[in-house]
Amino acid sequence: MIRPATETDLPGLLGLYAELHPDDPPLSAERGVAIWRRIADQPGREILVADSGDAIIGTVDCSIHANLTRSGRPFMLVENVVVAAARRRTGVASRLFEAVVDLALREDCYKVQLISRSDRADAHAFYRSCGFDAVAEGYRRYFR
Fold first, then answer.
1. Which pTM value belongs to this model?
2. 3-class SS at 113?
3. In-domain check, residue 138
4. Does residue 14 contact residue 24 with C-beta atoms inside 8 Å?
5. Relative orientation angle of helices 29-40 and 10-20, to the nearest 10 degrees
6. Is residue 143 situated within a structural domain?
7. Which of 42, 51, 99, 123 has the fewest CB atoms within 10 Å, i.e. the most exposed one?
């Protein structure tokens, strides 16, 4: 089942994020809850989870942004896409992205945008299979 995440999903989310970024130091429970509450308070922010009934097996973080172009239609940014290693290639990510697109359409977004590291050929093939096109070049500046 795909649904919006709640605070009770935080341990499962943090487990998935540890798979996504295994070199990151873990968050303390207190800091995780404080950050979760900030996220939950952001208008237009929705973290979706794939719930198998006994575990959170996938997630995607969506944020909808107001916009003064495109006749005032908002756009969605997608971040932190991860499916548990044991559940990859079982359709979980496809169902998550169907929910992403449904949410963007409900909110009248004119586009859904995501970026992916250039070396992730399998992920790029998946995104194309979901109807996304590589039409832009992305740039990042990281801070430590």
1. 0.93
2. strand
3. no
4. no
5. 100
6. no
7. 42
CA distance 126 to 108: 24
Q: Which domain holds residue 59?
A: 2-129
Strands (E), 2-91: 2-4, 45-51, 56-65, 75-83
Contacts 24+ apart (CB under 8 A), 114-118: 114/77, 114/78, 114/79, 114/81, 115/140
Domain holding 12: CATH number? Answer: 3.40.630.30
Checking if the pLDDT of 140 tops 90, the result is no
Looking at per-residue pLDDT, the higher value among 142 and 37 belongs to: 37
Q: Cα separation of 98 and 56, whole Å?
A: 17
Residues 6+ apart with CB under 8 A from 19: 82, 84, 85
State mean pLDDT over 21-29.
Answer: 92
Exposed, middle or buried by CB within 10 Å (0-12, 13-18, 19+), for 131?
exposed
pLDDT digits (tens, 9 = 90+) for 62-94: 999 999 999 999 999 999 999 999 999 999 999
